[in-house]
């Protein structure tokens, strides 16, 4: 059998084009090779984002960006997969988008120059800030009840949450580990935290889930 990458997406729309403002004429004509679920084949970017906005979940994700951490893009991609309300980049405005795989186009990404600015914005929105780090006194993710409306804050790979971030958090929680290493990858921790929110709060029976 020949080996090679499987063809992604679909070719040009066969037959008469469908009617509706959400369809993208260029995609209908040329084909849709994007990494999107079947529901959104041939939809315009704006239409997809608008539809996602009707179903977004109650959690936000914030990432400190002081060292241009390569994990940020991966966290953004995971936030898109779990349908976060917003993603907040704290620190440098520019961030490494490679790991996002263009999913940031479908996500609301907001920049904050400092943790204090993030905290002020969240206070206005009535959102508690929960840091994710294995700090003394942190709650255990496996046994805590996560608020339905919350913002998860993740630090840089290596140093973890900055001192300013720790002071701004309303609470922190840690993820149980059993091996020899002291910590796990930041993007892996983010995925675990977001999935825990999904397990506790998401409606898994409404037909809006995608299991690819």
Write the layout of secondary structure elements.
Elements lengths: L24 H6 L14 H9 L5 E7 L5 H11 L5 E5 L17 E4 L2 H11 L3 E4 L6 E2 L9 E5 L8 H6 L2 E4 L11 H16 L11
Parallel strand pairs: 1-2, 1-6, 2-3, 4-6, 4-7, 5-7
Helix pairs in contact: 3-6
Written account of the structure:
The protein has 212 residues and is an alpha/beta fold. It is 28% helix and 15% strand. The protein has a 7-stranded parallel sheet, sandwiched between helices. Strand 1, helix 3 (71-81) and strand 2 form a beta-alpha-beta unit. Helix 3 (71-81) runs parallel beside helix 6. It starts with 24 loop residues before the first helix and ends in an 11-residue tail after the last helix. The relative contact order is 0.15.
Roughly what percent helix?
25-40%
- Supply the helix-strand structural class: alpha/beta
Global Rg: 19 Å
Mean pLDDT: 93
Strand content: 5-15%
Principal-axis shape equals: elongated
**Low-pLDDT segments:** none
Rounded to the nearest angstrom, the distance between the terminal CA atoms is 24 Å
**DSSP summary, beta strand count:** 7
The biggest sheet amounts to: 7 strands, parallel
String of helices and strands = HHEHEEHEEEHEH
Number of helices: 6
- Side by side, the strands of the main sheet go 3-2-1-6-4-7-5
């Amino acid at each position: 059998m020949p080996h090679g990458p499987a063809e992604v997406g679909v070719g040009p729309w066969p037959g008469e084009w469908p009617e509706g403002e959400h369809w993208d004429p260029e995609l209908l004509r040329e084909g849709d090779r994007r990494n999107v679920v079947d529901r959104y084949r041939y939809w315009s970017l704006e239409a997809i984002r608008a539809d996602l906005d009707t179903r977004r979940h109650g959690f936000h994700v914030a990432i400190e960006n002081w060292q241009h951490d390569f994990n940020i893009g991966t966290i953004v991609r995971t936030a898109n997969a779990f349908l976060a309300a917003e993603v907040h980049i704290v620190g440098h405005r520019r961030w490494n988008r490679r790991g996002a795989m263009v999913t940031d186009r479908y996500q609301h990404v907001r920049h904050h120059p400092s943790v204090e600015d993030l905290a002020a914005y969240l206070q206005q929105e009535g959102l508690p800030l929960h840091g994710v780090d294995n700090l003394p006194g942190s709650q255990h993710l496996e046994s805590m009840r996560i608020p339905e409306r919350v913002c998860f804050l993740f630090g840089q790979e290596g140093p973890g949450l900055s001192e300013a971030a720790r002071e701004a958090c309303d609470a922190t929680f840690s993820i149980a580990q059993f091996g020899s290493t002291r910590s796990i990858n930041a993007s892996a921790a983010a995925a675990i935290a977001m999935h825990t929110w999904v397990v506790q709060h998401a409606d898994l029976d409404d037909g809006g889930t995608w299991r690819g």
